[in-house]
């Protein structure tokens, strides 16, 4: 008789079993599947109701927010995930107080950048939109330590629940606002309105009560690791969004709208898979012995590539059929199809780049990762600037070439750095 489990028993088993890389990958893959399906539904409606200029304005607003928000991604959480058990509580208390200060400062920074961007692009609507979105930073400090505890315990089912809820909420609100005629606000406001859900999920998932430290001296364990990590995330965010800034500035917001649509409709699925993979890989490598990190990193990359590469190639081959059917002939006539295919192909070398990045961070050498991020960003920038005279198709081609050229030295350096034969390099 086959060994089967009823749904309730299977759910209890998933909750009680020790987390593994495979299970965490499944959780995050499910999350990104829900996210992409929800995003696809929202894009289907928005693409038919909004003009390209609305997509262009939203691209600039969301880009500024993501660049500033990148600081919060890496300020304290990675350092807490890697912290020693005997220092964890002390570091959490310091990180909690510092995170409140950081998020308040980031609100002001985003508003200041928004004012400058509004002047640079000669569009006064950009400033209020960027300023309003900065309010989402107030939702982070109440649950940042809780999120670090969840990742430290490798409970990515909680991460999945938070991200799936946000994705579904954003998609529903985008559709509602687009139908109601909110214009580009339909693409911006949902990110702010769903931020409290993230706080709610993590605070429900684990308990933690802060004990204010009796001094303001920042522990070196936070700054030593967080400094390079912040640099990594900011450079990474800049690389992923500089094309929006360049196209919007040198071409027009209408052209940027076409590019932004093609990027999200094409690379959106691949980036979702990569995010699921990276989120699962980092805590898995942190829990692996120093001598096994290199082998674990390669096994993880091979496992992910077996699934992701066929999906990416199939998406490129099927694009001429599904784009006009799902999104409408208008976007094909505007030239979005070749952009979509080129950007989608750039996800292949991104698998190598993301793997190397997570491997170096887990090994406690984020400074090396920062150098690789800077090299990749330079290659991105050179490729995009070289292709800019040929419009958005030239920019997309430059991204594909730059990503491929960056993946080769990244893999060689990371493989040498994490080799089991050089354990002294792997110590934090």
TrEMBL record:
Q: InterPro entries from the entry?
A: Poly_Biosynth_Transport
Domain of life of the native organism: Bacteria
| Annotated transmembrane regions | 98-119, 125-148, 168-188, 244-263, 303-323, 335-353, 398-414
- Sorted UniProt keywords: Cell membrane, Membrane, Transmembrane, Transmembrane helix
Q: What membrane topology term does the record carry?
A: Multi-pass membrane protein
Locations listed in the record: Cell membrane
Alphabetized PANTHER family for the sequence: LIPOPOLYSACCHARIDE BIOSYNTHESIS PROTEIN WZXC, PST FAMILY PREDICTED COLANIC ACID TRANSPORTER
Q: Return the similarity comment.
A: Belongs to the polysaccharide synthase family.
* Descriptive protein name: Oligosaccharide flippase family protein
Q: State the species of origin.
A: Larsenimonas suaedae
Classification of source organism: Bacteria, Pseudomonadati, Pseudomonadota, Gammaproteobacteria, Oceanospirillales
């Amino acid at each position: 008789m086959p060994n089967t489990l009823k749904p309730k028993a299977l759910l209890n088993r998933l909750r009680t079993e020790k987390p593994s890389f495979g299970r965490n990958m499944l959780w995050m893959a499910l999350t990104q599947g829900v996210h992409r399906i929800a995003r696809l539904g929202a894009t289907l409606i928005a693409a038919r109701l909004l003009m390209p200029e609305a997509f262009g304005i939203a691209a600039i607003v969301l880009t500024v927010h993501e660049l500033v928000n990148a600081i919060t991604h890496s300020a304290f959480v990675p350092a807490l995930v890697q912290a020693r058990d005997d220092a964890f509580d002390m570091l959490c208390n310091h990180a909690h107080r510092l995170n409140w200060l950081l998020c308040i400062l980031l609100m002001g920074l985003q508003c200041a950048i928004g004012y400058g961007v509004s002047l640079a692009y000669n569009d006064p609507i950009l400033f209020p939109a960027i300023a309003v979105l900065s309010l989402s930073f107030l939702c982070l400090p109440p649950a940042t330590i809780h999120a670090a505890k969840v990742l430290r315990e490798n409970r990515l089912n909680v991460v999945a629940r938070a991200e799936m809820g946000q994705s579904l909420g954003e998609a529903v609100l985008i559709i509602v606002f687009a139908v109601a005629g909110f214009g580009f606000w339909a693409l911006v406001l949902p990110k702010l309105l769903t931020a409290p859900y993230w706080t709610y999920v993590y605070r429900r998932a684990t308990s933690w009560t802060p004990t204010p430290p009796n001094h303001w001296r920042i522990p070196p364990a936070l700054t030593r690791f967080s400094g390079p990590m912040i640099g990594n995330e900011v450079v990474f965010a800049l690389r992923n969004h500089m094309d929006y800034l360049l196209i919007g500035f040198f071409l027009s917001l209408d052209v940027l709208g076409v590019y932004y649509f093609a990027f999200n409709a094409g690379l959106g699925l691949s980036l979702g898979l990569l995010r699921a993979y990276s989120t699962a890989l980092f805590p898995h490598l942190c829990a692996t012995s120093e001598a096994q990190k290199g082998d674990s990193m390669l096994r993880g990359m091979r496992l992910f590539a077996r699934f992701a590469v066929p999906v990416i190639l199939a998406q490129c081959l099927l694009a001429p059929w599904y784009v006009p059917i799902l999104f409408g002939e208008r976007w094909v006539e505007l030239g979005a199809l070749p952009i979509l295919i080129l950007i989608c192909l750039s996800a292949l070398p991104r698998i190598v780049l993301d793997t190397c990045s997570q491997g170096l961070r887990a090994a406690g050498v984020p400074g090396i990762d920062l150098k690789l991020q800077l090299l990749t960003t330079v290659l991105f920038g050179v490729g995009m600037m070289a292709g800019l005279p040929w419009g958005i198709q030239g920019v997309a081609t430059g991204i594909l070439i730059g990503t491929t050229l960056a993946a080769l030295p990244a893999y060689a350096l990371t493989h040498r750095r994490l080799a089991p034969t050089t354990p002294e390099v792997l110590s934090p």
